């Protein structure tokens, strides 16, 4: 056992609008030898996710905010290198919320540490398809969306970590899947994983009208479930094309996370009444009761080749802010990850 | 048995924006003697309701549209004056969808005819507290709103036929009730029926900010259930002041029914995710399975003095369009009715 040098990202300034690299500061610290009940971990992978944008604001959000001057946090998987907690031994692979750093020493409960489940998956899968984004897709689609075989499911942000899993679970459930993503590569990838129709929203005129028109063409029978990752025009178009009793799990609204002024909501809200629509926001943190079922189903689906997943990887702790910022310009296909060692 | 002279309102022109008296035309017809299987009815009361505005539009709506040049339809209660259907006899009190006229002859199934349930209530109650508006309140609040004792329920359009019943059912269920209505008389009446706090929205500045401020003051613990009758700024304010997991049954959006251009939705839609809100439109027509429970509960509540109801009555078939138009300027407290004979 010995202290380990670690670099960590600290939160330097609150962004107004889009975050910029100078909002982050890289510091070098020593991760001390573990004290009684502590574990020392070298992180292998860390995740960046859209929800972290909300943690940069001063307003109360669902996840605790980042504190100015302090190390940032987020999901990570790593390997135990020293332990004075009888539950962990060197070599154990663990997940924790002590991301944005190369190594750390902490009591397991203080950082939400868990051993990775035994599974035939690489460790970083537990930051994506088998982790929080996968569970988010599973909960939102199945519990709130309640898709029935033969129904049409529309997914925005479909090439992302959550959206791409939503598309595939919907196919497994016997639905017709219409996806929206930006750019030819993403469109091609989504078609390759079995999505029936893909709208390249970057290839059509901006605004809800053109999107509604494209959606109507791609979903001639109307939309029964809309899984919303982006908000804004996509939500408006989904309401436009909705069938009676459509369900709309609202997972995120990345299109407006960086807005500096209030964004008008859908102009067609009145349809909510006549079509009896359900629009329901959710956070995966409220649905961890579904995790055992999720891990069982997801393990089986991956083994059977029914779920494929993509990763966009940046290398080295110094790239973490770049990886995060790229989320807002659509720089990732599948899960965006930072490989730390 | 003989033919009966009846006046009826016909739909003359599609309104753009607010309907005007010239959109309606009064005609005199003969209600023929009933043929085999038909019943002849003299209407005693007819109802006007906000949802009828949607029936004046050409766009497909949930209720069949009014047809230009044809007699309008809607809820009515009347007395059978002649019958060649063995299920009905002269003197029976019946409800039907053959409103907007003084008398009619029809096969019962063609006009949705039902005998009024035996109850210690005047017949017109079955157009209001014990009819469609009462069931609307019951379904929306209990099935979609799911209020729990101690929670705060916010109701807009609270002095209306539906809103005033929502307020009282919420009190019966042990909730704190905050209502919004326009004008001192309505405020006083709502306080008289047990509403905890009433916002007179006509007495504050227009716009969502002032309404949010007033709501925050009236609901310092936040809003758990918002029963929406009006849409627009009220929905925005309710989202602003919502607690996590708030439920919002959307019954109507009277504030925008007469809009001639698309109205922007709430600018604070992003809160739907972080607060895990559920916004769900509904139509009472989809929930008639709850009618038996509703009639049982409502009968007991009225008998026990727990539900009070108000009527705004205009006299004579010639007043029907005035009664309808007054709904959009807040001209009614409780149920708006037209007494026909």
Walk me through what this model shows:
Two copies of one chain form a homodimer. Chain A has 341 residues and is of the alpha/beta class. Chain A folds into two domains: 155 residues, Quinone Oxidoreductase, Chain A, domain 1 (Alpha-Beta Complex), CATH 3.90.180.10; 154 residues, NAD(P)-binding Rossmann-like Domain (Rossmann fold, 3-Layer(aba) Sandwich). Chain A contains nine helices and 15 strands. In chain A, strands 3, 4, 5, 6, 7, 14 and 15 form a seven-stranded mixed β-sheet that branches. A six-stranded parallel β-sheet of chain A has the order 10-9-8-11-12-13, with helices on both faces. In chain A, strand 14, helix 9 and strand 15 form a beta-alpha-beta unit. The two termini of chain A are 19 Å apart. The model of chain A has no long low-confidence stretch (mean pLDDT 94). Chains A and B meet through helix 7 and strand 13 of A and helix 7 and strand 13 of B.
Assigned CATH architecture of the largest domain in chain A: Alpha-Beta Complex
Structural domains of chain A: how many: 2
DSSP summary: helix tally of chain A: 9
The helix-strand sequence of chain A is EEEHEEEEHEHEHEHEHEHEHEHE
Structural class computed from helices and strand pairing of chain A: alpha/beta
Q: Span from first to last CA of chain A?
A: 19 Å
